[in-house]
Design brief:
By secondary structure, the chain is an all-alpha fold. The chain folds into 2 domains: 88 residues, no CATH class; 41 residues. It is 72% helix and 0% strand. The protein is built from 8 helices and no strands. The longest helix is centred in the C-terminal third of the chain and has 20 residues. The mean pLDDT is 94.
Length: 147
Amino acid sequence: MSYSVDLLKLMGTKIATQILYPQNTLPEAKLWQAVVLTAFEDATCNLSDKKSSIAKWEAFKWFHEKDDFEKVCYLAEFEPEYVLERFDKAIDNEAIIFNPKQIAWAKYNEVLNAYNNEVNKKKRKLLRIELEQKRQRLMNASTVPQV
């Protein structure tokens, strides 16, 4: 699998070296490495369409789900602390930034998921109202990043 030079720069030399020059890396570890790198790549995406925005938000949240994130890093033979440090540095350097449209898609999707999973009719009705409000915000959201 190949990755962009920009992504490998964001990930740092330690991980880039592991990816470009694998030594005795098991196929299973390569698979988990691809999971980590794909999440990192999703988090840096600048597209504002529905699919990309939701993938970006889900990837962003995943980096903060300590147990799952650490488990995947260990399976990938990455040090979770180092990966998270690189992720935080990407945020600090504004390589990971959300524009209003991406945020609107993420919030809309979370309410939509809650609505789809709710069985109580009264709660569904309230969620439907909230969903309509999120839809309106989404239609009015800009793709220009907030400063």
